[in-house]
Amino acid sequence: LIILAFLLFGLFLLESLKTQFRILHKNKTFAYIEISYNVILFVLVFVGSYFLKEKGYIFAMLLAPVLTFILYFDKLKIKWKPDISFIPPKMSFWKYSVFSSMSNVATQLLLVLDIILIGNLMNNPEMITIYRYVSLIPISFIFIPRVFLTTDFVMLTQN
Q: Phi-psi category of 53—alpha, beta or left, where left has phi over 0 and alpha has psi -120 to 50?
């Protein structure tokens, strides 16, 4: 778990890079970043898991976002403008961010706790597996709001 905590740093870099390309309306580059990340992750997980087992999987998870970041960072032309003053966001923005983050964490926690509680209530592992597969169907509809948020992301961040 300590090693996996370093995954936050790589994912932060990658998500920052992707966000910057989305804000600049370079959707094609954003898409290439997504595809490259998934291909790199797939190859590293496959090779790492085959040769190093679980340690290879962990290192693949750590290396994939960093390699993708390094691959696309040079395409990002950062122009530093020292004359721009920083305007702190309004308190309503921070309230929205905190509450939306908390709701996301609560949703993910409920999905995990659901399986754990069902596992404690049922003694038959086959029934737990069936329940898990049946519960994946409604959970998979979470992609619908994510589609709208992804398509309107640039407009939301600009406003």
A: left
Q: What is the pLDDT of residues 4-20, one digit of tens each?
A: 889 999 999 999 999 88
CA of 131: how far to CAs of 64, 117, 136, 138, in Å? Answer: 33, 12, 9, 12
Length of the chain in terms of residues written: 159
Tokens of 85: 């003053």
pTM of the entire predicted model: 0.63
Sign, Cα dihedral of 33, 39, 43, 44: positive
d(CA 118, CA 128): 7
pLDDT digits (tens, 9 = 90+) for 113-132: 877 787 777 777 787 777 77
